[in-house]
Structures are given as C-alpha cells and as structure tokens.
Write a structure and sequence with these properties.
single chain, Chitinase A, domain 3, two-stranded antiparallel ribbon, alpha+beta, 9 helices, 6 strands, about 15% strand, four-stranded antiparallel β-sheet
C-alpha cells in the first residue's frame, strides 16, 4: 500500500496537502471516468484517473505554479492517494453523519452548483458577436482621443529645474541630461514616457504636456512628485488595438458581465428575507457573486 503522510515539515507534499484539503474534497464527487481516461493508481481497488489529477490541478491553480511539471503531477497524485485512504477511514468512523460535515457538504454542493451554472451561462454569452460589440463600443470611445509622446526630467527643487532648463536652452541634449539629472526611474531611457493620454498622468503634468507643440520644452512644472521639465516629441490621435490583442480580456469581461447579470436577474425574482443589521443597508451590487464581474478590461480601450 502506498502511503505518504510521513514527510518532512514544510515539504512540497505537506504544503500541497494543506492547500488541497478544502478545494479537493469536491473531487470525491466526480462522475464516472471516460473510456480513454488513463488509470494512474488504485487505492483498495478504487481507481484514480488522469482526469482526477487534471481536476485537482485546475482547482489549485497558483498553488502549483512553483512546481516543475514532474513534481506537480507526482505531488497531486500522491495527495489523491492519501485523500482516498483518509476519506475511507472517515467513512468508517461515520464522520459524514456529523452536523458539521453535513453543513460543509451542503455548502460545497451549493458552491459547485453555482459555479457550474455560472460557468455555463458565461460560456453561452461569450459569442463572437458579443465580443465584437464590446470591442466596437470601446473603439468608438477611443477614436479621436489625443495622446502625447513626451520625455521629462524630474528633480527635487524649483532651482534645480531652472538650472536644467537653462542648460537645455543653451542646446544641451534632453535625453542625455535626463540620464544625468533626473531622479525618475525612467531616467536611463532618457526620460522617455512613451505615449500617454491626459488621464494617465497627474493633471498638472498633462495640462502642460498637451499644451506644448512637438519639439518644444516646458518651463518648470510642479507636481506631487517634484519638479519636471517636459519635452513633447510627438502628438497623434489614439488608435484602438487590434481585436486579437485584447480578445482574451474582452472574453473575460463578457463572461463576468453575463454571470453578474444572471445573478442579478435571479436575485430580483427571488423572495429574500434578511434578519441581520445589513438588511437595512443598500442593495448589494449585482456583481457581488463574482468579484470585478462588471469591471471592463482596461486594455480594451488602449
């Protein structure tokens, strides 16, 4: 018989077991294996299939990110073996008859039902037409918005900024002076900020940058970060990214919005009675069941 609890403290197996204890209890509820689903182990005659390991890895996600593939598969399989052994021992001890177990099992069942249905609703809503519409709507908002390509030199005091400006007025190279004088992390790139829109910079900085013509250099500008000298390199009208560049983000947005809308619809149709203090507070957001469900992907507008 394979056993695996006798491991050193903080070993990958023990850490994995700790992470798996809650979420992989649902693996015991898995349906029958497919005909082509490889059997990886047997525990007292009960089979563990490749699909069981895949399910475990899907549930864990980031918890396994630091393991190499071979270690990951070995640790997950070993834990599933341990889980089968301990689960059988728990059955023998009638653990499932306890009130606490029943409550946890009911919660796990409801959570799995909810996640499965919302996944189905999200998938059904994520059509090519729905994603194209989100993309087209965002693109219309972007069209014509101006963006500026600028460099800057950031110093601590106004006197330092004036001294830098004086050197530039005498013909000093802006990028070279930025490398020498600027305290900004981008100084090594000659103070290059790339292209940005007005709302991507603090107001004081944007007001000056967008008022300058390409090639012009500003007087000292004060912001919360210090004193800046700004040089505008180029101005252009912003263009939306190609659809394929933001497709995955749009897909996430459409999926989560559909799920949030579905939850809101069910909530509105349900008879809900609350008896806690929160009953008198504002109605919860429709996206409460899925964090950030209605948050539009930021990059979809870039």
């Amino acid at each position: 018989m394979t056993t695996s609890f006798a491991v050193a403290k903080n070993s990958p197996r023990l850490l994995l077991a700790s992470a798996l204890t809650g979420c992989l209890a649902l693996a015991l509820l898995a349906g029958p294996a497919r005909a082509d689903d490889k059997v990886l182990a047997k525990v007292n005659g009960a089979e563990i299939h490749q699909s069981d390991v895949a399910l475990a890895e899907e549930e864990l996600g980031p918890s396994l990110s630091q393991m190499d593939p071979a270690s990951k598969d070995e640790n997950v399989l070993a834990f599933l073996i341990d889980m089968k052994i301990v689960a059988k021992a728990a059955e023998d001890k009638k653990v499932e008859d306890g009130d606490d177990f029943k409550k946890r099992m009911a919660f796990a069942r409801n959570r799995l039902l909810m996640d499965s249905l919302l996944a189905s609703e999200g998938k059904a809503a994520t059509t090519d037409d729905a994603m194209k519409k989100v993309y087209d709507d965002a693109s219309k908002q972007i069209a014509g918005e101006q963006e500026v390509h600028a460099r800057h030199i950031l110093v601590e005091t106004e006197d330092q900024a004036k001294a830098v400006k004086a050197e530039l007025d005498k013909g000093a190279d802006f990028a070279k002076l930025a490398k020498e004088k600027s305290k900004d992390p981008g100084a090594s790139d000659g103070g290059d900020l790339g292209f940005f829109t007005k709302d991507q910079m603090v107001p004081e900085f944007s007001a000056v940058a967008f008022s300058l013509e390409p090639g012009k250099i500003s007087d000292p500008v004060k912001t919360q970060f210090g004193w800046h000298i700004i040089k505008v390199e180029e101005k252009r009208n912003r263009k939306p990214p190609a659809f394929d560049q933001v497709k995955s983000q749009i897909e996430t947005y459409v999926t989560r919005k559909a799920q949030a809308d579905y939850v809101a619809k069910l909530r509105d149709a349900a008879k809900i009675e609350r008896f806690d203090q929160a009953a008198n507070t504002a109605k919860p957001d429709a996206a409460a069941a899925k964090p950030d469900a209605a948050a539009k992907p930021a990059d979809a507008k870039k």
